[in-house]
Amino acid sequence: MANRAAGTLVGTGPELEPGTPGTVCDLIGCRRPGGPLESACLHELAAERDGPLPEVRIDLTKGAAASAAWVTVARVSATPELVLTEMRPGRAEDRRRRTAPHWTTGPRLRVITLGRTRLLGNEGPIEGRWLSNRSGRILKFLVAQRHRTVYTDEIAEKLWRESTPASVKALRYFVHILRTDLEPERQGRGKSSFVLAEPGGYALDRSNVEIDADEFEAHVAAGTEAGRAGDHVTAIQRLAAGVALYGGDFLADEPYAEWALDERDRLHNLAADALRTLVRLRQGQGQDDPEGVLADLERLTTLEPFDVEAHADLLALLVQRGRRSEAVRRYQALRHRMLSTFNEDLGFSLADIALR
Predict the structure, then answer these.
(1) Residues near 137 by Cβ (< 8 Å), separated by ≥ 6?
(2) Which pLDDT tens digit goes with each residue over 336-356?
(3) Is residue 11 part of a domain?
(4) Per-residue pLDDT reduced to its tens digit, 301-321
C-alpha cells in the first residue's frame, strides 16, 4: 500500500477515485495503458532481483506535488516477499531515464558494423579486447550472415581454415565465451539472448539484436521507392538518414576477412548510389540545396575515388562557390590518381570546368 506522503507526491492515478487508497503500483503507473511502464511492474521485477532496480524517473499527473518523481524499487532481503519503494521529487526537464527503462523491455544488443565494430547493450557500450579475438570474430561472422543459420563446420572453415572434429569442438567453446562476453550476468548455461543454437549451427536472435547496416539499407530502400513515386521530399529525408548511418565500410576492422568482402562491397555500392540519387534530387525538382549537394559530393568522391564524373561535378560546384584553391588541389590529386593507377589522363581541364 502507498503511504500518505507518497500519495501527496505522486498524486492520484487516473484509475483511482479521489480519497480511495491505492497501491504504489497504482500511483507510479505499473501496467497503466499508454504509460512508460505499460508492459511491466517494477515490483514484480524487483522481487526477482537480488539488488535494487536502477532508479527511473516517471512523469506525474496533474495535481501531484511535483512534475516528476524518481523511483527506486528493491526487495527487502530479510523478508523476500516484501518490496520497498523509495520516491523523491524530480523535475520534468530532467530527461534521464524518462521513459520505459531497459530492464522492463528485455535485453537488447545493437551492433555497429559500418566502420569499426562497436557494441551497445542495455547498460551502454560493450567493450574489450575479445572483439578482435576468436569469440569476437564469431560474432562478426554471424553478423555478416545475419539472415540465416550458419553451420558449425562452415564457421570453422571460414574463420580457422579447417573443419575437423577438434575445430568444431573449439568453436562450441568460443561460442560459450562469446555469450558470456555479451551477457556476463547470464546464469551458467542459461539461454543466450543474442546467439541462438540452431540445428547444426548458430544464428543471431534478430528479435533482440539490432544491426545498423539493416537500418541503413531500410532507409535507402524507402528513399529510393519514394523517389520513384515522385515524393522527393520524403526521398531526400530517408536517403539522407541512410547515408548518415554509413560510418565507413562494413566491418572495417576486418579488412582482410574474405567472408566480409561481398557484404562490404554491396553496402559500399548502395551508399554510393544513395549519394548519387541524393545529389540529383537536391539539384532538381525545386529542391535546390547547394550546401547539401556539396556535402553529398564530398562524401561520394571519398567513397568513389575514381568516379571521374562525380569529381567533375564537385569541382564545378567548388569553382562556382569561389573555392578555387580547393578545386585546384582536388583536380591535381584526381589527375595524379588516374595517371598512376590507369595511366589515363583526365579528359577535361579546370578551365573546362569553369565554363560549365
Answers:
(1) 159, 254, 257
(2) 999 999 999 999 999 999 888
(3) yes
(4) 999 999 999 999 999 999 999
| Domain's final residue, options 73, 104, 135 | 104
Q: Do 127 and 182 reside in the same domain of the chain?
A: yes
Domain limits at 163?
109-210
Q: Give the residue-averaged pLDDT of 238-255.
A: 96
Q: What's the pLDDT score for residue 71?
A: 77
pLDDT in tens, 123-158: 788 988 999 999 999 999 999 999 999 999 999 999
Number of domains making up the chain: 2
Locate 266 and state its grid cell: 554491396
The secondary structure of the chain, three-state, reads CCCHHHHHHHCCCCCCCCCCCCCHHHHHCCCCCCCCCCCCCHHHHHHCCCCCCCCEEEECCCCCCCCEEEEEEEECCCCCCCEEEEEEEECCCCCCCCCCCHHHCCCCEEEECECCCEEEECCEEECCHHHHCHHHHHHHHHHHCCCCCEEHHHHHHHHHCCCCHHHHHHHHHHHHHHHHHHCCCCCCCCCCCCEEEECCEEEECCCCEEEHHHHHHHHHHHHHHHHHCCCHHHHHHHHHHHHHHCCCCECCCCCCCHHHHHHHHHHHHHHHHHHHHHHHHHHCCCCCCHHHHHHHHHHHHHHCCCCHHHHHHHHHHHHHCCCHHHHHHHHHHHHHHHHHHHCCCCCCCHHHHHCC
What count of residues does the chain have? 356
Average pLDDT over residues 86-104: 57
Is residue 138 assigned to a domain?
yes
Q: Do 37 and 130 sit in the same domain of this protein?
A: no
The span from the CA of 5 to the CA of 88, in Å, is 10
Phi–psi pair at 85, nearest 5 degrees = -115, 125
Strands 109-112 and 209-211, by their bridges, are: parallel
Residue 243 forms part of a structural domain:
no
Three cell numbers, residue 214 = 539493416
Buried-exposed string 223-256: b where 16+ CB fall within 10 A, e elsewhere: bbebbeeeebeebbebbbbbbebbebbbbebbee
Which range has the top average pLDDT, 96-105, 179-188, 346-355? 346-355
